[in-house]
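User: My collaborator sent over this chain with a note saying "see what the structure looks like." That's all I know about it. Can you take a look?
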Amino acid sequence: MPKKILIVDDSSVIRMVLKTTLNEDGYDVIEAINGLDALAILKSGEKIGLVISDVNMPEMDGITFVQTYKAIPELQYIPVLMLTTETGQEKKEAAKAAGVRAWLVKPFNRESLMAAVSKLIA
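Assistant: Without extra context I'll predict from the sequence alone. Here is the result:
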């Protein structure tokens, strides 16, 4: 499994913090600003081992993005971790139904993030 992670978040600060944290543990990071941007990256053939996505973004939200890429046979195996401010059960259930494997709430701590990443990318 590639050690390359796609970060999907409209916040440049969150992307920067995630990239720094993940780089420190040896992961390569690609950044996308929303679901449409991320979908284009995935469709380009880039070998991604994990997607970390926000829920609330312009253009295409995280849940719609996951539903869309999970419907593409050659991409459906890529696990996804939602990293969001959302805590509502309805959103969590919609995400799980879309294929989300893990859910972390912002602000996150490094230990929880890295535990989830290592479990999902293994």
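A starting point for your reply to your collaborator: The chain has a mean pLDDT of 92.
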